[in-house]
């Protein structure tokens, strides 16, 4: 310290306002206390720490063996906007006397709470240096404005992520006074190895509760839209009651609207419900173990999107309070949680999963960096802070369009004839495509997939594309969770009970997703086509076979045995032609390319196919295209076959409309244009009046199979917005 001109110990004042900021400040306080030769520590406690309704959490500071120099009662009760303003005013009245007595060299302030704004304002006006923890981050509500206001008052900054560091630089802060340290709480999180976590779970949730079989709920009011946040909390509790799992509910913070949220809890009987445990406070060490072993965490606390990622616990982030936060893949965002069903569906999607652990916010070494940074502060430097203009250095900024264009996926399409691999950009552009004949045996096919993927991945570097993963579209029944083809179509031989994910992921060191080609077509429409932004729609592929995918409430439906959306095998006639599946009268037996080819051959064998204007070479194979050409040239028998095929497809669509009630039907594949009018006519004649207004459109995507395989990757790796 002497090399920086400091001849005495650095007197550090740490002010903590609530249970949340103490979890971040405590590791720093322990570090300061452990080096008395360099630092003197004064602890000031204010805010909700001192309120009984919020757990009297100042006691945990005493339990950690810290001497509290001053307790300031600064909260004006009322839990509304006016009370928040009055609380800031009360703190501003009381703090000057405390700071005059303590005369700290530096004050450490955390985060974005209104109490912290009062602390920073007081210190700045009294010429006390301020170290701000967790500046530069982005979230929702008034917290953003408060956080950035404290940044402008602070002299030194400790941030948690590279993005936060860049935001601070862009806000004209001096780069030399910014430390990228990581989140201090991660120092404790990543070293937490409490083997007796079962006793903690039993204490808070009951002795009959198992790991991964309970929920932690923590939801706060959104001060910029209190009415909506109360409604969302009510829907959340309804969904949790319906979900019927043991749930630990923590009381909300002291922000405006918290009183109404507590009323909602009591109105629904949460404190006396057998499935719920409602508590005001859980010690941080125990809270760590509870979220680490939970089946899910739900709410809008920053803890969910920050700390919980260290354990890979599934999180459902509700509403806008954390909008803009960097998150790991364990977080599912439900931005507009406007129905109980939507929240319930999110619980069904997330509960019990285990995600990779995330270290976005820290590596466990924040405190040593912060202590070193404190020691480097030269108290002889001018107190007046300087702002740096221009705000961002040239080598700091990145063009977001460039990033989006270069993020890409390897898409694989396993067809009955060809095997195709493509590099597909975030915008749906096929940058490069490779095509080979699909081998007949499993070994040759897998070897060719690997060879083509390796070649494409190498080429991606040359075309400035960063491959995020591999998506595979294949015929047959697929278990997308495990990446296994369960049963294939007859067009792809030796392709049942095949694990595609493991060998390809091992060879390329990339994540791999696999799904049925019909589902992939629906995903392609959802991301790049007519289905973009549509909540409920159905895609029908009309090609060699008939397939499709169903998107309901923005989610693809797979079914209990991954057999949903086998739309080609909807039976429209009990005594119709035989289908490849072994049944009779399926849509595919009437309207697929194979079915039309079969009928074309019958006409050709009877010399009834060719009409004036048509010719065929002797060795040419009769196909569905010849039947369509004959119908266009006036062949009445060909016209009749196509009319029957269109009617069969239309009846199948009517059945779909009556079953899942989509708002849009998308016809995809080479035969879509030939069937669209026939399908609309059948709907007009046969459908119930309530579904006749459904839109039926032809896909405008050139290659839905490859685009759908790519979307498996791009939708997942670039984070999900539900």
UniProtKB/TrEMBL annotation:
Its main location: cytoplasm. Residues 38-375 form the UDP-N-acetylglucosamine 2-epimerase domain. It is found in: Cytoplasm, Cytosol. One of its GO terms (molecular function) is UDP-N-acetylglucosamine 2-epimerase activity. The active site is at 517. In the N-terminal section; belongs to the UDP-N-acetylglucosamine 2-epimerase family. In the C-terminal section; belongs to the ROK (NagC/XylR) family. It catalyses: UDP-N-acetyl-alpha-D-glucosamine + H2O = aldehydo-N-acetyl-D-mannosamine + UDP + H(+); an N-acyl-D-mannosamine + ATP = an N-acyl-D-mannosamine 6-phosphate + ADP + H(+). GO terms for biological process: UDP-N-acetylglucosamine metabolic process. Keywords: Allosteric enzyme, ATP-binding, Cytoplasm, Hydrolase, Kinase, Metal-binding, Multifunctional enzyme, Nucleotide-binding, Phosphoprotein, Transferase, Zinc. Homodimer. Homotetramer. Homohexamer. The hexameric form exhibits both enzyme activities, whereas the dimeric form only catalyzes the phosphorylation of N-acyl-D-mannosamine. This is Bifunctional UDP-N-acetylglucosamine 2-epimerase/N-acetylmannosamine kinase. One of its GO terms (cellular component) is cytosol. It holds the Pfam family Epimerase_2. Zn(2+) binds at residues 569, 579, 581, 586. Pathway: Amino-sugar metabolism; N-acetylneuraminate biosynthesis. Its EC number is 2.7.1.60, 3.2.1.183. An N-acyl-D-mannosamine binds at residues 477, 489, 517, 566, 588. It comes from Ficedula albicollis.
């Amino acid at each position: 310290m002497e090399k920086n001109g400091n001849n005495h110990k650095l007197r550090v004042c740490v002010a903590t306002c609530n249970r949340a900021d103490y979890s971040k400040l405590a590791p720093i306080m322990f570090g300061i206390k452990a080096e008395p030769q360099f630092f003197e520590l004064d602890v000031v406690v204010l805010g909700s720490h001192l309120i009984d309704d919020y757990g009297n959490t100042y006691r945990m500071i005493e339990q950690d063996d810290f001497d509290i120099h001053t307790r300031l009662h600064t909260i004006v009760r009322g839990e509304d906007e006016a009370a928040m303003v009055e609380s800031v005013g009360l703190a501003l009245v009381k703090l000057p006397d405390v700071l005059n007595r303590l005369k700290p060299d530096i004050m450490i302030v955390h985060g974005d709470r209104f109490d912290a704004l009062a602390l920073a304002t007081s210190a700045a006006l009294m010429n006390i240096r301020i170290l701000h923890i967790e500046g530069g981050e982005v979230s929702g509500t008034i917290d953003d404005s408060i956080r950035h206001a404290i940044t402008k008052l602070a002299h030194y900054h400790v941030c948690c992520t590279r993005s936060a560091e860049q935001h601070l630089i862009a806000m004209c802060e001096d780069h030399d006074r910014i430390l990228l340290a990581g989140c201090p709480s991660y120092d404790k999180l990543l070293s937490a190895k409490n083997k007796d976590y079962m006793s903690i779970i039993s204490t808070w949730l009951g002795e009959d509760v198992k790991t991964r079989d309970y929920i932690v709920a923590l939801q706060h009011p959104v001060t910029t839209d209190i009415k909506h946040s109360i409604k969302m909390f009510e829907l959340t509790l309804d969904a949790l009651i319906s979900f019927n799992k043991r749930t630990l509910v923590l009381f909300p913070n002291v922000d405006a609207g918290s009183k109404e949220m507590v009323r909602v809890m009591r109105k629904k009987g949460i404190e006396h419900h057998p499935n719920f445990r409602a508590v005001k406070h859980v010690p941080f060490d125990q809270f760590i173990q509870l979220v680490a072993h939970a089946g899910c965490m739900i709410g809008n606390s920053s803890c969910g999107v920050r700390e919980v990622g260290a354990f890979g616990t599934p999180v459902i982030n509700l509403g806008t309070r954390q909008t803009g936060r960097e998150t790991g893949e364990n977080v599912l965002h439900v931005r507009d949680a406007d129905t109980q069903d939507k929240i319930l569906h999110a619980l069904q999607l997330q509960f019990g999963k285990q995600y990779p652990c995330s270290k976005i916010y820290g590596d466990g070494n924040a405190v040593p960096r912060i202590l070193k940074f404190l020691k480097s502060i030269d108290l002889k430097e001018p107190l007046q802070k300087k702002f740096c203009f221009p705000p961002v250095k040239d080598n700091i900024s990145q063009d977001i369009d460039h990033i989006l264009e270069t993020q890409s996926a390897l898409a694989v399409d396993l067809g009955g004839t060809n095997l195709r691999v493509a590099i597909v950009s975030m915008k749906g552009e096929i940058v490069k495509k490779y095509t080979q004949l699909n081998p007949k045996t499993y070994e040759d096919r897998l070897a060719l997939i690997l060879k083509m993927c390796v070649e494409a991945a190498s080429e991606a570097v040359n075309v400035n594309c960063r491959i995020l993963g591999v998506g595979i579209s294949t015929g047959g029944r697929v278990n997308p969770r495990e990446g296994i083809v369960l049963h294939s179509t007859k067009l792809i031989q030796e392709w049942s009970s095949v694990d595609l994910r493991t060998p390809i992921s091992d060879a390329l060191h990339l994540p791999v997703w696999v799904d049925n080609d019909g589902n992939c077509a629906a995903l392609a429409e959802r991301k790049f086509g007519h289905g973009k932004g549509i909540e409920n729609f159905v895609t029908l592929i009309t090609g060699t076979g008939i397939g499709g995918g169903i998107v309901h409430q923005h989610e693809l439906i797979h079914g209990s045995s991954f057999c949903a959306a086998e739309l080609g095998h909807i039976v429209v006639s009990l005594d119709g032609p035989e289908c490849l599946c072994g049944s009779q009268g399926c849509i595919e037996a009437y309207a697929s390319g194979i079915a039309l080819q079969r009928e074309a051959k019958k006409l050709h064998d009877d010399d009834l196919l060719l009409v004036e204007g048509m010719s065929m070479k002797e060795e040419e194979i009769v196909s569905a295209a010849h039947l369509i050409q004959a119908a266009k040239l006036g062949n009445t028998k060909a016209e009749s076959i196509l009319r029957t095929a269109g009617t069969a497809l239309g009846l199948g669509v009517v059945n779909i409309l009556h079953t899942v009630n989509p708002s849009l039907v998308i016809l995809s594949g080479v035969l879509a244009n030939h069937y669209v009018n026939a399908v609309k006519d059948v709907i007009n004649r046969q459908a119930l009046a309530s579904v006749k207004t459904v839109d039926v459109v032809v896909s405008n995507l050139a290659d839905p199979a490859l685009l759908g395989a790519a979307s498996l990757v791009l939708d997942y790796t670039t984070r999900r917005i539900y």
